[in-house]
C-alpha cells in the first residue's frame, strides 16, 4: 500500500482527501503545515506527497525546493496544487506534477497511480 503525505492547510480538503485516498487503498499521513515538513517527510517516508502551494506560514514552493535539496528525498514524488495556475513555477522548483483547484478526484488518483499502480 502506497503512503501519501498530505500538506494542506484547508481542514475540509484534508478530510475529503483522507477519505478518498483511504477508500482507494492508500495509507495517509497529514502534515502539520507549521511543522518542519522536510523533517516530517524523512520521518514518515511517504511514497508520494500532495502539497498546497500556500501552507499557512510556509510557502509550498520553498518546501519543495528544500526537499529537492536533500539527497535522501530526491526521489519523492511531489504533486502540488493551487487555486492559481502556477504549474510552470511548481515544476521548475521541483514538483513532479501540478493540479489546479478545483480538481476532480480521479485526476489526483491518476497522478498518484502513474508510478504506483
Textual characterization of the structure:
The protein has helices spanning 11-23, 37-44, 60-68, 87-93, 105-113; strands at 3-7, 27-30, 48-52, 54-55, 58-59, 77-82, 97-100. Helix content is 39%, strand content 24%. The chain has a single domain, classed as Rossmann fold, CATH 3.40.50. The strands form two sheets. A five-stranded parallel sheet has the order 2-1-3-6-7, with helices on both faces. Strands 4-5 form a two-stranded antiparallel sheet. The chain has 117 residues and is α/β, with parallel strands linked by helices. It is globular, with a radius of gyration of 13 Å.
Task: Record keyword descriptors for this entry.
Rossmann fold, 24% strand, 117 residues, 7 strands, five-stranded parallel beta sheet, two-stranded antiparallel sheet, alpha/beta
Beta-strand share of residues: 15-25%
Q: Helical content, roughly?
A: 25-40%
Q: Mean of the pLDDT scores?
A: 93
Number of helices: 5
Full CATH superfamily name: Response regulator
Amino acid at each position: 500500500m502506497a503512503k501519501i503525505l498530505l500538506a494542506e492547510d484547508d481542514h475540509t480538503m484534508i478530510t475529503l482527501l483522507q477519505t478518498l485516498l483511504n477508500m482507494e487503498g492508500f495509507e495517509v499521513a497529514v502534515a502539520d503545515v507549521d511543522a518542519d515538513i522536510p523533517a516530517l517527510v524523512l520521518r514518515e517516508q511517504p511514497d508520494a506527497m500532495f502539497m498546497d502551494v500556500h501552507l499557512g506560514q510556509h510557502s509550498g514552493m520553498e518546501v519543495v525546493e528544500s526537499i529537492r535539496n536533500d539527497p535522501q528525498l530526491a526521489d519523492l514524488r511531489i504533486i502540488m496544487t493551487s487555486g492559481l495556475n502556477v504549474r510552470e513555477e511548481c515544476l521548475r522548483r521541483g514538483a513532479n506534477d501540478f493540479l489546479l483547484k478545483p480538481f476532480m478526484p480521479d485526476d489526483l488518483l491518476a497522478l498518484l497511480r502513474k508510478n504506483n499502480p
